C-alpha cells in the first residue's frame, strides 16, 4: 500500500512537491497519467478538474493511507467542491502550495477552500523554496505511521 495520494488541479505543484521530497532536481513535468513514485501516488490534475474522472480518484484512493489535497495559493478557482474529501475511505490533509509567491488574501482563500473540501488539517509550503516541506514530511510520516496495538 502507498502512503499518500496527491490530488489537485493542473499546475498546483503535486509533482514538484514529490520531486522536493525525493531530493530530485525541481523541473516542471506535466503528469499525463497516474504515476507511482515510491510511496506516493501522483495523479493528473484533470482527475480533480473533471468530475467524470472522480471514480478514478476513488479507485486509486484504496491504495493510499492518506489523501493530500493540494491547492495552489495562486489559483483562485474553487478547485475542490464542498465535502470533496467524503468520497475517500481514508483521512485527507490539505496543502497550500506556492506560498512564496502568494498574498495573505490568496492564502486565506486557499485555506478556506481546503476546509470547505473537508480536509482534517492544512499545511502551507513552497516546494520550490523548501519552506514548510520539513513540517509536511513530519506530518505525512505521522499520519501514515503504523498503529500500535
Automatic annotation (TrEMBL):
SUPFAM superfamilies the record matches: P-loop containing nucleoside triphosphate hydrolases (SSF52540)
Keyword flag RNA-binding: no
Signal sequence extent: none
One matching Pfam family: PduV-EutP
Keyword Isomerase: no
Keywords from the UniProt entry: Nucleotide-binding
Family per similarity comment: Belongs to the EutP/PduV family.
Protein name (Swiss-Prot/TrEMBL): Ethanolamine utilization protein EutP
Lineage of the organism: Bacteria, Bacillati, Bacillota, Bacilli, Lactobacillales
